[in-house]
Amino acid sequence: MLVSELRELLKKYTVEDLRLLVSEMYKSMPKKLREDKDIDELLKDVQAYARIGKAEKTQGKQINIEEIKPQIELFIEYAYKQYYFAPNNYIHKKDRPKWRFIVKAYIKDLQDVRAEGTEGETATVLLTKLYEMLSYGCAYYIFNTDNPFRSVGIEQTDLLDSIIKRKLANGIGKECVRSAISLVINSNVDRETLTSSLINVLLANLKSTDSKELAIEQCMAVKEELEGQKPNSSRKSSSSNFSEYYHKEKINNLVEMLFKLYMALCEYDKAIAYFNRNNMERDKEVALYVLLSHLFNYDLKEHWLNEYDRALKNGVEPREALKRTFMYIRKNNKLPEYMHM
Question: What is the 3-state secondary structure (H, E, C) of 172-227?
């Protein structure tokens, strides 16, 4: 049936008939189709959805980056001030839920700009700022959701990947690699994303040995800088405790990144030794579990057994899950399909 025929057909239905019709059509749609086509957003605000659709049809047209830049920067400023979440005199209540359409359109426009040249660099900077804003929204309420990436309809890892590719498009140097490392380490994640996944995205974009070695150098520099910014632990408050925890997590994420970079260079012993010396987890059993999980993922059976035995000699009592995994390896001379939790 043609769209024109559909419109003509709908004229004969009453409002109640149309409600029933839409309800039945909605129920008949597979969940994946509803998510892919943003059907829920269409139902919430059909006019806003239609405007986004028109923008997508004209995406082939080159945008004026200097014209859109102040618009994006103002939007980001308003978002951090919670104008799209809390009552205010700047964004009308009915317009606040439309932030997701605005962000989605901005990201699409910016990704259409080639990474090369001055305009490309500006687009990359703006994409980075939008990513940082959405990442911030995973930890603090600036929108009416705790998962802003999903609300926009994009995976956090996918957006990060596109930004890192743009950062490295004009050649892999110290500045762009350090910028990519900082972007990963400073990211907040939603409930469905692990920081390890963000680290893996960065590593996947470092194809050559030289790029990995450069990343190791810059990770070391960022880690040294972070260690020099240790929070003041003399003030015992909930905020200082949170700051100290967040600081420790950043360093541990850098340690994981360096571990994986050494592993990517097949320097397994060096990777393990570095992890054991630098991981800041106070509970030695937890640190052991994290290390053995990594070694399991790399399918390094002998290294797994060596670290398990080393921990026992150092007086660490492994959890039951690790003991079961150890017994399986000894009995079958191979790693199990999955490591016990």
Answer: CCHHHHHHHHHHHHCCCCCCCCCHHHHHHHHHHCCCCHHHHHHHHHHHHHHHHHHH
